[in-house]
Sequence to fold (706 residues):
Amino acid sequence: MKIVHHGKISLPLILAPALSTFALPVLAVEDTMVVSATPGPISELDTPAAVSVVNGDDMRQAAARVNLSESLGSVPGLQVQNRQNYAQDLQLSVRGFGSRSTYGVRGIRMYVDGIPATMPDGQGQTSNIDINSVESIEVLRGPFSALYGNASGGVINVTTTTGTQPPTLEASTYYGSFGSWRNSVKATGATGDGTQAGDVDYAISASRFTTHGYRDHSSAQKNLGNAKLGVRLNEASKLTLLLNSVDIDADDPGGLTEQEWHDNPTQAPRAEQYNTRKSTKQTQAGLRYDRQLSANDDLSVMMYAGVRETTQYQSIPVAPQLNPTHPGGVIELSRHYQGIDSRWTHRGNLLVVPVTFTTGLDYETMSEKRKGYQNFVVENGTTVLGEKGDLRRDERNLMWNVDPYLQTAWQFTDKLSLDAGVRFSSVYFDSNDQYIVGKNGDDSGDASYHKWLPAAALKYAMTDAWNIYTSAGRGFETPTINELSYRDNGQSGLNFGLKPSTSDTVEIGSKTRVGNGLFSAALFQTDTDDEIVADQSSGGRTTYKNAGKTRRQGLELSADSQFANDWRVKMAWTYLDATYRSNACGVENCEGNRIPGIARNMGYASLGYAPPEGFYAGADVRYMSDIQANDENTAKAPSYTVASLNSGYKLRIQESWMLDVWGRVDNLFDREYVGSVIVNEGNNRYYEPAPGRNYGVGVNLSYTFM
Fold:
């Protein structure tokens, strides 16, 4: 099943659990490009799920190319917020899942060229996504996301550029407010047309980003590299090598109380006191083998491995660390991860009904060495903060999963079709405590989680331009290693009382093509048992608990239309009512309260004029309603509306050179607002402020070898 986007190639989510794609012929159909793997390719209009596609070229148009928050505002149901804190990554949630995350991404499965950016425990990050290399980003929301394993909210699939002829070299630079610089280079190309044995395609990109940061103690530097090399082995098979590396050093400004935010949103008092900071290095490699076994059968195998090293200094006071069971205020992690995902797809007929079967096995594993140290040393009777002190924790953790899956597509009539699938997810966790000193006992332990994850969708074509569908599915979300790592109230040991959450979702949707545009609507309800939510958060460390029952119900609307050749309008609206259906607050009864970290309403609208060459310009407006900061709903970040403008000029020099000079203004009306919240922060330091009016300029220069 294939997805069509206006003039762009996009690959399927519904029938590609491994999210690894086979290079297949491209056919032109009127003004739309589709990827054809089967007779009669199916468009995005016909996909019975809430799917949004963001094009890489659109993401790079007059943009800093640093964060996904710059370009994903048009996706309904996706709440992505820039913390202004490169030590903690973006805050990203789909239909409210992932909102509890104090750093990184939870509740969402993420893939880059088929390699999971989400670990087996369900924790992921966006830091290794190279926007300069992105071909497209697909966001799948709703029941079918359950078929991708350990996630409840959705799936984000990033596909990077595959090199083609003629070869192209590109260099770009960006300078923005707060001393922000980004310099990038990229090379793409191919030998042959990709259909003959020995044909090679390549895409290589590298960038460096530095910033002083909007807030005090928020400077960062990031080096990122991405490479993709494909070799056609013969007419039926292809081998693709994928390499990625990221190196980040960032200060951590931390959260502010409401009074601190109003007094001076740029301050970071505790961060400067403890010199809070984080360094991350990650390198990974993947090898994908795709083979067309016959006219009706395809085989795909993805293998990958990587290592991630992290050191973080937190703002935990000295007094709590004097407790002999306290794990300290410095975290050192060394993670090695690897996996293999193999799948076979068959297209044929069963009792004269056209059917597609995809079956596969996904195996992922991660080993982690976790150490904790005091974040202070004593020199000549003086306590010096922000320095690595004595060892307080030493353990080895292992988590792995083995997931077989099956997905099917049945075309009963020209108008009626059924997509159905099931995945059996098994996740295992084992911890070996190697720090047993005095009152600090042996906290070793293990746990395992198992769940059947079915999903199905029924679609009916009302007309050639209007489809409706209904779908249902079950999701499954285990605790991450970090969520298991700490217990509340300073207790020692792992939080093995934390149970996985399960969610049941039903959805109805409609997709209509109007002229050259697509209008989509989805109405959904998700009921969750044992949802994992933040319990206590203090000093950069968060503990978690199960919340009993929760409910999410909402409406997503989106429209994307191109008119008068070079004009384009995009609009999106999300209504999401997310509430506790049982008491998750202990003494205080918060049944009926809103789940913190989730906006009830989000809106987006943009208008752009973008011809292939010459002058271009655009404007967008984003609205976010208020966000509750704690379970008791006694603190919240107020609603806000911000606007931005951009403009540039693309100049063709002869036939080979293209020069693009641009500028932009964000938060045009200098609105003071909170960019994100730290849910249930124990000292009421919920608020991470966003910058006021800020500016950026850039130059892109490319040369094509004709």
User: Anything to note?
Assistant: Residues 82 and 550 are 26 Å apart (CA to CA). The first helix runs from residue 56 to 60.
